[in-house]
Amino acid sequence: MTGTPRTRGRSNRSTAASRLLDVSALGNEYGPNRFFWRDVIAKGLIPTIRPPQFRRVFVERADVEKLIASWKVSGQTGFTGRPEQRIVDGTSTVR
After folding, report:
1. Per-residue pLDDT at 18
2. What is the pTM of this model?
3. Which CATH number fits domain 16-71: 1.20.58, 1.10.150, 1.10.10, 3.30.160?
């Protein structure tokens, strides 16, 4: 038999072609770690697929792409991690 014990018997389909992704695959493909994606799922920000009698949770690739697109912000020149501050009449205001 070929393959390691973990992959033996599984198809050789690439992860990039998979429609459904678990939290580990989300972390591997989209950057933030699996704990970030667990939080996103727990907060209900993305629809999930929960097959009956399985503990694993999946999300559709298309839903992940839509969520990421909704997070895009245009027109910003840079991100400082802090709200933009203005000085008006000697006082600081947060916008």
Report:
1. 85
2. 0.60
3. 1.10.10
